Every structure is written in structure tokens, then in C-alpha cells.
Amino acid sequence: MALPVVAEKWSNSVKELTIGATQAEGGTREKTVTVGGAKCVPFIECDGETGNRPAIAMDVLDYVPNDWPDILRKPIEDVIDEPAKWAKKCVDEFGADLICLKLDSIHPDKGDKSPEEAADTVKSVLEAVNVPLIIWGCELNDKDNQVMPKVSEAAKGEKCLMGYAAQDNYKVITAVCLADGHSIITQAPLDINIGKQVNILVSELGFPLDRIVMFQSTGALGYGIEYTYSIQERERLAALSGDNLMAFPVISNVGFEAWRAKEAKAKDEDVAQWGAQEDRGPMWETITATTLIQSGVDIVRMYHPKAVAAVKKYIDELTS
Amino acid sequence: MALTGLDIFKLLPKTNCKKCGKPTCLAFAMQMAQKKASIDECPDVSEESKSQLGSASAPPIRLVTIGKGDKEVKIGEENVLFRHEEKFYHPTAVAVTIDDDLDDGALNDRLAKINALKFVRVGTEIEIDMVAIINKSGSADKFAAAAKTVSENTALSLILSSSSIDNMAAALAVCSDKKPLIHGVNSTNVDGMAGLAKVDGCPIAVSASTLDELAELSEKVKKDGLEDIVLDYAGSGLKDNLQGLTSIRRAALKKSFRPLGYPTMSFVTNCDDPYQETANASAYLAKYSGIVVVNGIEPWQIMPLLTVRQNIYTDPQKPVQVESKLYEVGQPDENAPLLLTTNFSLTYYSVEGEVEGSRVSSYILPVDTEGTSVLTAYSGDKLNEKVVKKAMEDAKVEDSVKHRKLIIPGLVAIMSAKLKDELGWEILVGPKEASGLSAFLKSNW
Q1: What interface predicted TM-score (ipTM) does this complex get?
Q2: Helix, strand, coil share (%) of chain A residues, nearest 5
């Protein structure tokens, strides 16, 4: 039977971005990670190239996460107070494609560490692992603006991905990423218009369009995932339809959000009917990731090794 | 392709008689094209035009009903590829398997666990919808026996899966009144299976590994007089299946290709790894499957799937709201704490869940903020001291509590002074996140 042709012809593609630099490229990474490049809606290759496979970044904190449930602490208990070793474990044992170093300890409530101390942490993590780095501030504008310049300088040449530039705070981070050759994350609070606006603001400072990653704040499974899902679908469609200021790879903060959900963090004795947390928690994180990946995510930030392994397998199946 | 107003106009009497209430036939046609008027409103239209319009205005993806009674499953009749364009209408049915080679004890145990797969999320009970009985034994007797036991002991709708016509007939003989979905139909057995479906008036799923073959099968059973058809695209893996499901939805919606204008189903039963099974099922839920069939029956496998479905199938144009009134958690008395929040259901139920978890009996008052969350409502001036005062008066909170202390969300601590002036109540600033409520209530109340 003659079937109708259903392939879509898209006029544009998601921009491709490489994070990390090898020695030949002026850095010290042994591996780099390239994301983006899709010329189709996620994984539908009859439309065009599916682009690079989504990458998994595992979060490493420079501040001991005492509020994490035991199940999340257990795999990293032995290295939890040493970001460099924690990062190495994520790469060597859990198979992280990248490390997302979250500089929690610069927050005034969490140690108020100095820019110099943060820069030292970044250096130690860069030395410990051979994969590229995402560096994420404490999300407090003033403090991030003090710290990010030092951190950026310390990682100069490594082509890190730095986060983030927001509508009300983008100038400092844009300037330092530009100066030190890093890529930048633009953030918006589940708002596609603000998302585009931040991209415009950053590009107006002369930031190259091939070094931007978009971050629409993430909603976990059961906690607003549908908002993130639809905004990311709309972003991908805008990109494919020719909007160059929306044609950037997308990052999602899955681990943090999924593990805030009661379904992941509630203790077994409180929710016996939901099954053991040992699997319930990682599964909640896994399904948050797998669902969002269907809406078009290029980098997922994750927490639990079991979830990382499952999502990796899922990505393998989608891209093989 | 849907008919345009002009296409419809050509089929109308063109008398401008106004009997339909519209000024002209053209105006009526335009309204019909937007699905705001029905051809039945035109008293003079010819039967021939009516039937032409009828088939052209049939939904591009047929609505198929499986099962009978309260738990019947309706799938199909979707209008869009992306939920933000409109919404997804008929939530994917989640089915779990029961193999017919289990002994009685094991089968009953499994069925009892399946029947118990119910959860409450944001005030709504979510549960699985179907049981798929798999003719793994190859025996007609065993298949029929399993079908009988299952149909007698569950209210859920059934899928019967066997590629043997005789075995299918045996199972249908014991449960056809439940209108199960006949599955296992391929090019080698399609005639016999279609015959069974016709006799028993049951929906039928056709399976193939190419779209071509699938379209041929659906056309074939349609010629046999069947209309309640489900398409089981069984491709070579996750990626191929998603491609197939997407092509089916596109062919139906964008090309009005009738042979693929039916709801779909996906079997996710060949994964060894439970994570992989649930992960793949989540993808099919988001991307166009009408039914996903899984093996896993553990709550930690099923609850996330049901949650994906609940989330993806919410109406994106309409924030889900709860009624603005005074809610009781536990058995609050006149000394119980009173917590203020907004009527965005996600916000309200996060608060309710945590208050429940704290085991401190309390009152919660969600203010009508048009379904927006605390910060959004505050910045949009939908949550201010006047709105709060009115909500408290409407809910007659002063009749319920003796004290005059109001706990407000930490995110709007800034409202404290104005609220205090407006209400004359003491304002306690609660935590910024609902997750802090348990500790807050225990130490501050």
C-alpha cells in the first residue's frame, strides 16, 4: 500500500556545541562532548539528522549535601567532602559524560567561600577528571558575580560551560565567558519569551551564538514536568522553523528536581505502598529524565548512579 | 484533510433559507468547518451530501472503546502532535501482562497485586487500566482458564494476546461479554481473527513490523466490517517504534490517511531490566501510544508511568485548580494551625501532602489566584492582603479557629506587615518550600 510521505522539511537545525578542550585545542581534557546539531524533532530521523546524542552530566557539590537522603549519599559517601574525588568517581565508576560542579559553598548560608577558594576547587576538579566541566554558581546574583570571574579565569582554555546568565543578571558572566573562551547557559523561569530575551541580551554583548546552551527551569515528574516539556518542545520547533535565537542545545536540571519530590525522597516506613526507596528514588529520577529527553534535551544533570545507568541505556537505544 | 468552509458550502443547498439560524449557507459552512455547527442543523441538505460530509468530518483518528462499564478504556481521537497546540484528549491506557502458564496461586497473587495498583496524586486517583492475558503456554485450555479467572476477578479491561485463532476463540468464549481487545493478529491469521472479532463485537489490534503491512492489515479488517481497530507497530526497537508511532500520528492528522487513522499500542515486554522497561514505556506514553503494555507490577515501576500520563495529558491551556475553600487535614479543632496558600493544584497538594505527613491536624486555605503559584500570583497582584481578607471572610475561618494566627508561605514573607494591618491577625512566616512544613509545624505550633 502506498503510504503518504510524512517527513517534515525543517529549514533550520539546533546549533552544535563542543564543551571541553583537548591539549591540541588549548585545554587539558582527554575527552570533549559535542551536543546539539539536530535537524528534526527528537529522534525522528526521517526528517533529518538526529544530531549528537544527549549527554549526561553528574552533579558534584563542593558542599556536603546533608539534606540528601541516605540512598543518594551512599554511592558517594566516601568522597562526599572532596569534590575532586567525587567527580573522579562519577566519571570512572558511574560513567558521567561531563561533571557539573555546583559551587554551593560560595553561598553565604553554606560557608560563604571566597572566589579564590572556589577557583581552587575548580582547578582540583579539572585535574582529577579528563572530561569537560559545567560550572554552576550558587544562584545568588551578587555572590556569583564576585566568584565567576575568578573561576572562569582559573579554567581558562578548558572551554567549560558556565551557568548561568539570567534576565536580571547576565553581564558579568557573559563578559568572563567571552574573555576566557567558555560557553554560557542562559536561564529562564519556564517562560519561552524570557528564554529568547536572555539569548538576545547575551548576544547583544557580542557573545557568539554557537556557544550558548538554554536552561528553562526544570519541573520534576509530578511537579510541573509538563510545563518544561511543552516549553522545550516549543523551543525545538522554533529552532527547526528558523528562529536562530532559539536554536541552542538545552540543559535540564533533573537530579536536583527529581530528588525534591516526595515520591523519591520519602522514607520507606512513611510510604510502604510505594515500594522501596532503593528503586523508587532512582526510578523517579530516571523517568523525569527520559520524559524530558523526548521533548528535546541535550544535556541532563543527574544525581543517582542507577538512574544515570538507566538513562544511558535509554539514550543508547534512541541513538543506535 | 479536514474540509474547508468552501468545500462544505458546495455540498449545502445554497438557498440561504436561515432555518439553521445563520444568515447564509456560507456562514453556516464556515461555522461547520470550525466545528461550531453540525450538519444536522440544516433541514434541507441532501442525504448524499450528508454522507459525504459525515465521512469527511469523521475524526482523523478513530475513537476506540475497549471493555465495558466503569473501567472501559477509550483511546484515539487525538487532534495534535504537540500538546501545547491544543491538548491530548484520551489518556494512554496502561496495561500489565499476566501469562497463562502461571499456576493458579501465582496467577491470583499477581492479579491481586495488579488490582491494587492505585495511587492518589494531586487529589486524583490514578490507576492502571488493563490486564493483558498472554497465551504463553500455547494451550487453548490454559488460555481460556486464565481469561476466565482474570475476567472474574478484576474490573479492569482486558487484552487477549494469542496468535492462534482456536486459542483466541476459546478465551473469547469465556469473556467476550467484557469486550476485550483481540491481540496477536497478523497477516497469517487475520481472516480468522477478524471473524471472531465480528461475531463477538470486540475491538481488534493488528500487529506488524512495517507501516505498510500495518496499513494493509487495518484495511483488510475494515473490509471485513470492523471499525474498532488498534494499530500495534512492533518495530525493531525504541527508536524505530517512536518513528513508527510518530509517522502513524502524522499520516492520520496531516494526510488524513484513513488506514492509519486508528489509535496505537506498544508492547514493552521484552526488556530484562525493569528500568529499561519503564523508561521505554514513558517514551511511548509521551509519543502517541494509546496503550502501553508492561510486565512490571511493582509500585515503583507503575507510579512513575501513571504520573507521566497524568502530566502529559493535562490541559496545557488551563492550570489545574482546586476550589478555594477551607480544607481540613486530619481532625483540626479550634486551636489548629491555619495555613494560607494558592489554588494552583500543584501548590495546594504539595502543601496538603506535607501537612498530612507532619501529622499536625490543620486547616489549609487556598486563595483563588486563578490557578497560579505563590510567587506568580504575588507578582501578578493576584495574591494581596485584600484577596486574602476576602478569602478568609468567604471561608468563615473565624468560625473554625479561635486563635488569630495565619501561617503564610515563606516566599511572600514580604506581605506580612500589610496582612497584619488588613486582618488584625498575627502573621507567621512559614517555610519557602512545602517540604519544610513538617518541621515548621512541629516546632512552631
Answers
A1: 0.96
A2: 45, 15, 35
Per-residue model confidence (pLDDT) at position B1: 47
Predicted structure pTM score: 0.89
Residue-wise pLDDT tens digits, A183-242? 999 999 888 999 999 999 999 999 999 999 999 999 999 988 999 999 999 999 999 999
| pLDDT tens for each residue of A2-17 | 899 999 999 999 999 9
Domain B5-57: CATH superfamily is Electron transport complex subunit B, putative Fe-S cluster (1.10.15.40)
Q: Which of A67, A265, A283 to mutate to test the interface with B (most CBs of B within 10 A)?
A: A283
Section B397-417 average pLDDT: 94
Residues in A closer than 8 angstroms to B298, CB to CB, are 275, 279
Mark yes or no for CB contact A4/B216 under 8 Å.
Answer: no
A237-279 pLDDT, tens digit per residue, is 999 999 999 999 999 999 999 999 989 999 999 888 999 999 9
Sorted by where each begins, the domain ranges of chain B are 5-57, 64-312, 327-444
For residue B304, give the nearest of A3, A230, A284 by CB distance: A284
User: Would the CB atoms of B300 and A283 count as touching at under 8 Å?
Assistant: yes
Closest Cα in chain B, distance from residue A60 (Å): 23
Of A273, A286, A294, the CB nearest to B286: A294
Spatial contact of B155 and B70, defined as CB atoms under 8 Å apart: yes
Residue A16, Ramachandran bin (φ over 0: left; ψ between -120 and 50: alpha; else beta): beta
Residue B320: what residue type?
A: V
Nearest to B123 by CA among B440, B360, B343, B437: B343
Is B410 part of the contact surface with chain A (CB cutoff 8 Å)? no
What is the span of the domain harbouring residue A233? 20-319
Q: Is the CB of residue A24 less than 8 Å from the CB of residue A267?
A: no
